[in-house]
From TrEMBL:
PANTHER family registered for this protein in UniProt: C4-DICARBOXYLATE TRAP TRANSPORTER LARGE PERMEASE PROTEIN DCTM, SIALIC ACID TRAP TRANSPORTER PERMEASE PROTEIN SIAT-RELATED
Example of a GO MF term: transmembrane transporter activity
Organism classification: Bacteria, Pseudomonadati, Pseudomonadota, Betaproteobacteria, Burkholderiales
Subunit and interaction comment: The complex comprises the extracytoplasmic solute receptor protein and the two transmembrane proteins.
Protein name: TRAP transporter large permease protein
Membrane topology qualifier: Multi-pass membrane protein
Biological role: Part of the tripartite ATP-independent periplasmic (TRAP) transport system.
A cellular component annotation (GO) from this entry: plasma membrane
Organism: Comamonas flocculans
Domain of life: Bacteria
Amino acid sequence: MIATLLFTAFVVFMFLGVPIGAALGLAGAAAIALANQDAQWFGLLAVPQNFYAGLGKYPLLAIPMFVLVGSIFDRSGVALRLVNFAVSIVGRGPGMLPLVAISVAMFMGGISGSGPATAAAVGGVMIAAMNRAGYPAAFSASVVAAAASTDILIPPSIAFIVYSVLVSGASVPALFAAGMLPGILAGLALIIPAVWLSRRHKMGQNEAGEPRPRFWKSLREASWGLMAPVVILGGMRMGWFTPTEAAVVAVFYGLFVGMVVHRTIGLRDLYEILREAGELSAVILIVVSLAGIFAFSLSTLGVIDPVTQAIVHSGVGEWGVMGAILVLLLIMGMFLDGISIMLIFIPLMMPILQHYHWDVVWFGTILVLCIAIGQFTPPMAVNLMVAAKIANVRMESTTRWVLWMVLAMTLATLIVVAFPQISLWLPAKLGY
């Protein structure tokens, strides 16, 4: 009865338009109150305790810093210089600009770790360039949105930080290392349909007429951006700072590049940058803290065990269960943001992981891959919303293009499921 109340209340609150974080907290609080009718107020003390417990975790300090890094590099002009450098390498021609967009977005993933921030930074440069070259605006938005989704796989990643907080035994360095090869695989998978569609539909006919940037000049201009992942990831690997401290280093590095080197960020811009980063960080952290109430009610009210037993004894076997989980995650990614998916489903998934002895780092990579697909799968599609707004097109017009990207990245996810060493080899090699 209490389990039914918990999930019913959550669904009803969402249909009433209550923000998902508040819906999680209110549903959890209602279930806790009903379960402790004899000592209701004493039982409700678990609400503020778990609100704080969900927030008071050291790794979460990195989230506002990496969000701030994304805002800083969005305005620093680094994306434009990286694009020019990439074009100087691959040249111009049909299908080359989509390849450049995906490559630059993957590289930006080594700086910010935020999909929407990269969609804004890369989209602001690439969508206009692709339009001038003759690519349809809807196609350009689809490519940028899909490419930006790789950012939550390639370290540093906000999604992996949240996962490490929720799952014991999954350290942030191990998750960062585990996401590297699957992130590259996902990017390569996206390049195939992007280039194929460009050439099949004869897009980019005007691209060959534009001059090719000079290699050494573009390399010199892009060098500060190219060094950012080296500073962030190299410093963590060398043991100079933790992932949380790396986020702070990245902020100051980005400010130095934007304010001193490129001089694209002034003192007046700092307020807007800090305001945007503060608002987005507050939303993420409040949802995390309210979900702590929901997770507490799941674990203490006996909801998880019956659900786990029903799944395990459903008769479909281990890989049938994995397939069902993938389908569920892909569907949920169409309607919920990635952080919410983690907070809702990880408490339910953990007993299943333990039953089948699945590696928590491998499963975290698969989970984040599914969330990445959701970032550009309508109707939620936060990356696609950003890219479509920049391209000035309706999201509906991107469907014929973006579904090819969804298919390609889904196949990449299935490859990681079938071959766990793709995600586990690098953490083992690095000693994590």
